[in-house]
Amino acid sequence: QVQLVQSGAEVKKPGASVKVSCKASGYTFTSYYLHWVRQAPGQGLEWMGIINPSGGSTIHAQKFQGRVIMTRDTSTSTVYMELSSLISEDTGVYYCARDGAEGLFQVWGEGTMVTVSS
Amino acid sequence: QAVVTQEPSLTVSPGGTVTLTCGSATGAVTSGHFPYWFQQKPGQAPRTLVYDTSKKYSWTPARFSGSLLRGKAALTLSGAQPEDEADYYCLLSYTGARRVFGGGTKLTVL
């Protein structure tokens, strides 16, 4: 079945970078776009950006311009989201979500907790 | 970045009907914003309920329906069940395929 399996929890210091992975299985990796969405503790969802696994093109929310890099490795069917210059407000759960043939955000990863603390 | 507004909280009686709305600070919400609705329960990843204003996925309970209502996107729950108690988020698409979530509505079934 279609699955998105994310990497494990991370603890980082302010100013550092974090790289979260999202490994896809059960479908043709290059056929569907993938989004990154984050959620701070007790807060709402925040759309970060989208990547086309086929060509690697990306679109980011303006808030994260210059601080986020989304990449993919077609050989392992994995997408990555790297966030740099971390601050405490970046603490939260980071989700990847796959589009479908009709409709977006059809399949979600389980989330990766990122904690930024000195 | 555009601001998307939702009611912070709503309460509905079991079996009752409630409508959640989703507005855009830039003006009226239209089908061109391709409104989405998500349900999230504590400790779980979100689940997408409605896309492109009113289309449903195979897993979307029939009691949920999406529409446009007086310049906003709307999610109507008819015949609320205890298991519908959750946070609900809308998402709108803007220029350049950028998306923005609303702040979410905490729905209580009581």
Topology:
The complex is a heterodimer of chains A (118) and B (110).
Chain A lengths: L2 E4 L3 E3 L5 E8 L8 E6 L5 E7 L6 E3 L7 E6 L4 E6 L8 E7 L8 E2 L3 E5 L2
Parallel strand pairs in A: 2-11
Antiparallel strand pairs in A: 1-3, 3-8, 4-5, 4-9, 5-6, 7-8, 9-10, 9-11
Chain B lengths: L3 E3 L2 E4 L4 E8 L11 E5 L6 E5 L3 E2 L7 E6 L2 E7 L7 E9 L3 E4 L3 E5 L1
Parallel strand pairs in B: 2-11
Antiparallel strand pairs in B: 1-3, 3-8, 4-5, 4-9, 5-6, 7-8, 9-10, 9-11
Summarize the entry for a quick read.
Helix content of chain A is about 0%, strand content about 50%. Chain A has about 120 residues and is mainly beta.
Kindly state the number of beta strands of chain B.
11
Mean pLDDT across the residues of chain B is 96
Assembly level: heterodimer
What would you call the structural class of chain B? Answer: mainly beta
State the share of residues found in helices of chain A, binned by percent.
under 10%
> How many angstroms does the end-to-end distance of chain A come to?
40 Å
Strand content of chain A: over 45%
Helix share bin of chain B: under 10%
Could you spell the SSE succession of chain B in H and E letters? EEEEEEEEEEE
Shape of chain B: globular
Which labels suit this protein?
heterodimer, A: 118 residues, mainly beta, 7-stranded mixed beta sheet, 4-stranded antiparallel beta sheet, 48% strand, B: 110 residues
Describe this protein's structure:
The complex is a heterodimer of chains A (118) and B (110). Chain A has no helices and eleven strands. Chain A is mainly beta and 118 residues long. In chain A, the strands form two sheets. In chain A, strands 2, 4, 5, 6, 9, 10 and 11 form a seven-stranded mixed sheet that branches. Chain A has a four-stranded antiparallel sheet with strand order 1-3-8-7, with no helix packed on it. In chain A, a hairpin with a 4-residue loop joins strand 7 and strand 8. The mean pLDDT of chain A is 96. Chain B is mostly beta strands and 110 residues long. Chain B contains no helices and eleven strands. Chain B has strands at 4-6, 9-12, 17-24, 36-40, 47-51, 55-56, 64-69, 72-78, 86-94, 98-101, 105-109. In chain B, the strands form two sheets. In chain B, strands 2, 4, 5, 6, 9, 10 and 11 form a seven-stranded mixed sheet that branches. In chain B, strand 5 (47-51) and strand 6 (55-56) form a beta hairpin.
